[in-house]
Structures are given as C-alpha cells and as structure tokens.
Amino acid sequence: MWPFVGVATRRVGVWVRSARGVGHPCLMSSSGRRPDPPSAVGGPSLVQILGGRSGALDASIPPVAFVAGYGIADAAGSASALLWGGGAALAAGAAMGAFRLARGRRPAAVLAGLLGVAVAVLVALYTGRAVDFFLLQIVSNAASALAWVVSIAVRWPLLGLVVGTALGQRTRWRRDPDLLRGYRRASWVWVGQYVVRLLVFVPLYLADAVYALGIARLALTWPLVLASLLLSWPVLRRALPADHPGLLHPRVPDVDGGPPYSGPGHQG
C-alpha cells in the first residue's frame, strides 16, 4: 500500500530532472545561467520518496497473484480458493520483498508492503468474499484523496512537503507565496488520480467483479502515477511568475527586511 504521498505516489525521474533545472527557464537565474544547486539537494530524490517505478510494481504483483491463484483454484472447484489466492498473494509479496532487500531496500519499507498484503488477505478470509481483498486499497485511496484535499485547504499541500523534502528545503518553500500557490494547484492533480481510481474501483467492488477489479488495479497503478508526475510540473510552472528562480530557490523574505532571497545563484 502506498503512503498518502504515494505517493507517489512513485515512479519516474521527470520531476527531479525538471527540478534541477534541465531545460526549464523558470529554474534559471536572472543572468540566464543555471544557479548552482545548494548542497542540501544531495538528499533523497522525489522518486525515492514516492517509491519509484519499483514501488508501483511491488504494489501491483500481489493483487495479480491473488486473482490468478483464486481464479485457478475456483475454476478447479476447490473449496479453498480464497486460501489459494491469499497464499499466492503472500508468496508474491514475500518474493518481491526478498528481491528488494537484496537490492538494498530498507527493511521497514519491505515489511510495510508485506503487512498491507497480509491485511488484505485477512480481510478477504474473514468475510469469505474474494472481492474484499481490494477493500483496503479502496479505503486507502479514499483516505489519500481526503488527506490531499485537506492539505490544500489548510495551505500545507502534500506535494510541497514531498518536493521540499526531496530538495532538502524542509518547509522554506512555504514562505514563498508563488511556490505555495503552485504546489496547491498541482496537488489537485494528485487528488484526481485517487478520485479516478475510486470511480472505477467502487462500482466494480459493489458488483462483486473480482477479476475486473484485479485488471483495474493493475491498469490504474503506475499509469496514473506517471500521468500525475507528468501533469504536475506544467501546472506548477504556470503558477510561477516569469522571473521566479525556480523550485530550487524559494523566494523568502530577508530577515533584515531586504528583498526576497532566492538562494545561491539568484541575482537580486
């Protein structure tokens, strides 16, 4: 299960390359050259925080394994089709977890993913309905949509928190009215991905369409995240004035009452 920033979230390097000023005049200094990046940029990237493409793959494989295991056992007339499906999902999750650990993934992240699969399996076994395997995912998407909307309403947009963390800015971006406005607008793109999933998942869940849910779960995982990443940048960029130095250099008021400071490379 993805975290609220899902998350994102979770998947290509487009945002990070853009944020570092590759081909975007908005991220240049007023002299026409790219500003020197601050040392804080050496922290985790946006892709790492959101989970990268591997995160989307990890989230997709256990549901596919569940539907496949359940479908094969059910077609064979097994009375334990749910157990077969749950076992397949857990086995797939464990295999992916072992692979990610071998590739250097943090144990806490791997355990969190396995816990999500285990809870989904337990819910389905408790209710006796295969479609309830997807109930946790539906609730998670609803909660994520709500969290993003609330973050926009209270002027702490989650996209700003994610990107600010990735760029080592903490919350300095929030003191820049232009960046704050941009992050709020771009965060609606991420709300949209959760709403789209709910519009598809909920009717299928109510129709008890377990196989269709499995297909939808696969189709609406990384493609929607990729679309959100690609659409967020132009939305945010259009919210910034032409003379803004870019994401790397929030324009924050000088403590001595001078002009706004935009970080290294800004030609005040």
Summarize the model shown:
Helix content is 61%, strand content 2%.
Number of strands: 1
The value of Rg in angstroms is 21 Å
Indicate the low-confidence ranges by residue numbers: 1-51, 262-268
Count of helical stretches: 10
**What share of the residues lie within helices?**
55-70%
State the secondary-structure class: mainly alpha
- Sheet-strand content, in percent, reads under 5%
Average predicted confidence as pLDDT: 79
Task: Please describe the biggest sheet, giving its number of strands, its sense, and whether it closes into a barrel.
Answer: none
The rough form would be described as: elongated
What order do the helices and strands follow? EHHHHHHHHHH
- Count of domains: 1
Which key terms come to mind for this protein?
268 residues; elongated; 10 helices; disordered N terminus; mainly alpha; disordered C terminus
Question: Can you describe what's shown?
Answer:
It is a single chain. The chain is mostly helical and 268 residues long. It has one domain (5-239). It is 61% helix and 2% strand. The chain contains ten helices and one strand, in the order βαααααααααα. The chain has helices at 14-19, 46-50, 52-75, 81-102, 107-127, 135-153, 158-166, 177-206, 210-219, 222-239, and one strand at residues 5-9. Helix 6 (135-153) runs antiparallel to helix 8 (177-206) and helix 8 (177-206) packs antiparallel against helix 10 (222-239). The N and C termini lie far apart (45 Å). Residues 1-51 and 262-268 have low confidence and may be disordered.
